[in-house]
Amino acid sequence: MLTASPTIPDDIEQQLKWQKPTWGKDTNAAEKLKATWLGHASFMVELPTPVGASRGPRILFDPVFSHRCFPSAYVGPARYTRPPCPAEEIPVIDIVVISHNHYDHMDAPTLTILRERHNPHFFAPLNNDQTFVELDISPTRFHCLDWWEDREISVDLPAAQGVTTGSNTVNAQFRLTCTPSQHQSNRGVLDRYHTLWSSWAIEEIRVVGEAAAPNVGFKVWFGGDTGYRHVENGQDEDKVPHCPAFKEIGDKFGSFDLALIPIGAYNPRQEMSSWHVSPSDSVRIFQDIKAKKALAMHWGTWVLTFEPVLEPPALIAQELKKAGLSEDVFTACGLGETVIISK
């Protein structure tokens, strides 16, 4: 078992291809999906731009821009890579989606900035209401869902320049579903398991015409923070039972155009496997949920466990090869990079 924290390379930001986000504005990709990695498990996803709109619906997952992921700003894990931009530079967002209440996924200072600047709707798993209340977020703006609950969300987007509509807006719709994961929750020492944890699924709803039924466009899955199985020391991981929820998700939704899947914070395995996937687990989740493309997350930001900081993406490539999958179906993008996904 490793007992010392891993060494951080001096050029870590260069190796992670740190860059200021462009949010895909420098691409001709209005009809495509855009995903921007903002560090750890934070991703901005923008759905395709509807005809006549200036942008697509924007979903911000697990935004954390604080230096430390801990109750105190003075102790606890500190970033070894900078956020690619300040929280204040996040463009207008429509909803914020939280996977669970751990400090590396639910950051009060960041959520306060987003409330003050954008006043979006906030979504989280069951029983996270009190945190939103403490952040002075209106009860009409936060929504806590159980596993398999969904909401159809309607967003009025600003019309494109030169486009005239009655309200200067264009409507877009998508469905958000709270899906299971294998994890836990707490923000203090006495509240473990008091709130739910989850993954999330997004389905773009395309309204073809007044007489036609809506159809589903792009589908995205956000893994949040999760384990896949529990492994004792010396056990063969491939022979250990695994969580069936991910196959259930794949069966329910059919497939996903993009999956955002955690890959880091997995060693030592006996202690961490119940809560955090290894790269081997990550590839199996990719297969279980029937994803077409995956981007890695939950790495490259804080030292939370003992594996070398650059090991997770290297092991992903090895596991893909073992599974007979192409290396380009599951990749780690640059920090701040926007990846364009085609249908």
From TrEMBL:
SUPFAM superfamilies reported for this sequence: Metallo-hydrolase/oxidoreductase
A Gene Ontology term for the protein's cellular component: cytoplasm
GO biological process: N-acylethanolamine metabolic process; N-acylphosphatidylethanolamine metabolic process
A UniProt-annotated Pfam family: Lactamase_B_2
Domain of life: Eukaryota
Gene Ontology MF terms: N-acylphosphatidylethanolamine-specific phospholipase D activity; zinc ion binding
InterPro entries the UniProt entry points to: Metallo-B-lactamas (IPR001279), NAPE-PLD (IPR024884), RibonucZ/Hydroxyglut_hydro (IPR036866)
Annotated binding of an N-acyl-1,2-diacyl-sn-glycero-3-phosphoethanolamine, by residue: 103, 276
Domain Metallo-beta-lactamase: 58-299
Coiled coil: none
Record protein name field: Metallo-beta-lactamase domain-containing protein
Origin species: Serendipita vermifera MAFF 305830
